[in-house]
Write a structure and sequence with these properties.
The chain has three domains: 69-193, no CATH class; 261-448 and 566-611, 2-Layer Sandwich (Nucleotidyltransferase, domain 5), CATH 3.30.420; 458-549, Dna Ligase, domain 1. Helices cover 28% and strands 26% of the residues. Strands 13, 14, 15, 20, 23, 24, 29, 32 and 33 form a nine-stranded mixed β-sheet that branches. A six-stranded mixed β-sheet has the order 3-2-1-4-11-12, sandwiched between helices. Strands 6-5-9-10 form a four-stranded parallel β-sheet, sandwiched between helices. Strand 17 (289-291) and strand 18 (294-296) form a beta hairpin. The chain is globular. The model is unreliable at 607-611 (pLDDT under 50).
């Protein structure tokens, strides 16, 4: 048996290659416990492969539970990590602060060395003047100026520190791209997370208390592909969007099977909502992500996350305005209706009181939901169910617009792929607000991210800075060499490799990723509304992505879900599934689609609605 296991804030979802699904309450004290429990229940005779999506890296960063890190950098650049950029977190709020640096000033060490951007050595690295690493430091990040292009000095420093027994992350291995601030932060993040993620991942390979040990464990990265345990332990900065990336990947596959190459994935779980634009059948990549307010220059999908989920707590703020999230009731105590001691109202409580979740429903091992407890929690907080639903929908609508309208994409030309335990409860109203004509509820919607983990290919991405700028001589040879280097990372005969370039018009400060330089003008027009004929195009980075076959195909995993929609679903109607609940408002109509999905559209026969 091969299984996918996605650790969420409220539930850990498990899916097998035979289409069976399982939800296990998450165990925040040790997320691996829920994974091991779910794996043992799903496959008591043993697990051939465990494909895992983890929140350990994200939670360690959000909660500031990482390692004490020392930063070694070029003399004169120790404060780059704190000076940062000139932009402010909130333009009109003078009291808004940037996140504090992950490295204390006393732990920033400088080494005399200087290499020019063209590779000229101006000052040899002085290893004999490398300061001693302070006592108590658990990991070291090395980030020297221009090491993205010319890493020799950084290699020498990193090797010296590693030989002394330190856990070292070096920028030329973690984030070999220009922009020294972002490169420094990303390298420090990797060092910060290694002592936390390494033992956790090793524990997964060790199996559960019953002695079950997976034959193989792979871990989903933020870029929507899996890596082996050694890579994940060495580069945990790749895991910050691990679970959501699996969901976006599966949503793209389902949308394409249903005839929609362009869509938006909408994953509303218990703690958060994750949305991602899908173009030409694939989730869109991001040049950079911000996690906990910090820039991360590592391969990732362009996933936008907000603190809105079924467990998001509703309250009145100091001014009497209704606020929903980002605080969550989690799995324990959970929403009031769970009966585990929760007393604060959540979105799930509002959905239950509003009738979107039928009274008497049960969520797996939780038993029957307590509608009176939900009603009491809402009343005690002075909020009403309809208001909570309106507020959380407004926040999710803004998130969906951020990945569509703000990227120059009209939502009217997209499908909305709704999944997660709570996504299908809110999708049709959001589609109405966006003008999106079709909502797709995939089979296994409540555990689709776990499906994505199991059906995602192995993936590694290499990036190199391009020193030539507008001089493209040798570009094709450099891309071919990078592709060969990427292929050498995997020992699989049928691996595939693709290359891309990051381009911009000369004088611009940010770039777009395109398959080739020739594709840049059209992509610039799509994103920015114009081309600049005659303006020189500058290449700043080269990329190569190698992929290996996935553990399973999505049509295989979802085969047992086919044919469940035997007749149309006409709103208003609540459809209760074993993995999720679907709210079909008045004016909407659903029919079965490919891969066991439900396609919801505005009912042309309903007066006052669009066809």
């Amino acid at each position: 048996m091969r299984i996918g296991a996605d650790s969420g804030g409220t539930f850990t979802d498990v899916v097998g290659t035979d289409g069976r699904t399982l939800k296990v309450p998450s165990t925040p004290h040790d997320p691996g416990e829920a994974v091991r429990t779910g794996a043992a229940r799903m496959a008591p005779d043993g697990v051939a492969l465990l494909a895992h999506g983890t929140t350990v890296a994200t939670n360690a960063l959000l909660e500031r539970r990482g390692a004490r890190v020392a930063l070694v950098t070029t003399e004169g650049f120790a404060d780059v990590i704190e000076i940062a950029r000139q932009d402010r977190p909130s333009l009109y709020d003078p009291w808004a602060d940037r996140p504090p640096s992950l490295v204390d000033r006393a732990d920033r060490l400088e080494v005399p060395e200087r290499v020019a951007a063209d590779g000229t050595v101006l000052t040899e690295v002085a290893l004999d003047r490398l300061p001693a690493v302070p006592d108590g430091v658990e990991a070291v990040a090395v980030c020297l100026l221009h090491a993205d292009r010319h890493p020799a000095h950084e290699v020498a420093v990193a090797d010296r520190l590693a030989a002394s027994g330190h856990d070292v992350s070096a920028s030329h291995r973690v984030a070999p791209e220009f922009r020294e601030y972002e490169r420094t932060v990303t390298t420090v993040l990797n060092a910060y997370l290694r002592p936390v993620c390494g033992p956790y991942l090793a524990g997964l390979a060790g199996g559960g208390a019953d002695g079950t040990v997976p034959d193989e464990v792979v871990v989903m990265t933020s870029a929507g592909g899996s890596v082996d345990l050694d890579t994940a332990s060495a580069l945990p900065v790749l895991l910050l969007l691990s679970g959501p990336a699996g969901g976006a990947r599966a949503a793209a596959a389902v949308a394409r099977a249903c005839g929609f190459d362009d869509a938006v994935s909408f994953d509303m779980g218990g703690t958060s909502t994750d949305v991602c634009l899908i173009r030409d059948g694939a989730p869109q990549p991001a040049a950079e992500q911000r996690v906990a307010g910090l820039p991360v220059r590592a391969p990732a999908l362009a996933i936008h996350t907000i603190g809105a989920g079924g467990g998001s707590i509703a309250r009145l703020d100091e001014g009497g305005a209704l606020v929903v999230g980002p605080a969550s009731a989690g799995a324990r105590p959970g929403p009031a209706c769970y009966g585990h001691g929760g007393t604060r109202p959540t979105v799930t409580d509002a959905d239950l009181v509003a009738g979107r979740i039928p009274a008497g429903s049960s969520f797996g091992a939780l038993g029957e939901l307590d509608v009176e407890a939900s009603r009491g929690a809402l009343d005690a907080a002075g909020v009403d169910a309809a208001g909570v639903i309106d507020v959380v929908n407004a926040g999710m609508e803004r998130a969906l617009r951020a990945v569509s309208v703000e990227q120059g994409v009209d939502p009217a030309g997209l499908a909305l792929v709704a999944f997660g335990g709570a996504g299908p409860l809110h999708a049709c109203e959001l589609a109405d607000a966006l003008g999106t004509p079709t909502v797709i509820v995939p089979a296994a919607a409540g555990v689709l991210s776990a499906v994505g983990l199991l059906t995602a290919p192995g993936r590694r991405e290499l990036v190199r800075s391009w020193p030539g700028g507008t001089d493209l001589a040798g570009l094709d040879d450099a891309l071919a060499a990078l592709a060969a280097e990427a292929l050498a990372l995997v020992d699989v005969p049928d691996a595939t490799v693709a290359t891309a370039v990051d381009c911009r018009y000369r004088g611009q400060s940010h770039e777009l990723r395109v398959p080739s330089v020739a594709d840049f003008p059209a992509e610039h027009r799509r994103r920015n509304g114009e081309e600049r004929p005659g303006d020189p195009i500058e290449v700043v980075a080269l990329r190569a992505v190698v992929e290996t076959p996935a553990p399973a195909r999505i049509d295989e995993v979802l085969a047992s879900w086919e044919g469940r929609w035997t007749e149309p679903v006409v709103g208003p109607q609540v459809v209760v599934r074993e993995d999720c609940t679907i709210w079909v408002p008045e004016g909407w109509r659903g029919e079965g689609g490919p891969l066991g999905s439900l396609l919801l559209r505005r009912d042309a026969a309903t007066p006052g609605t669009a066809g």
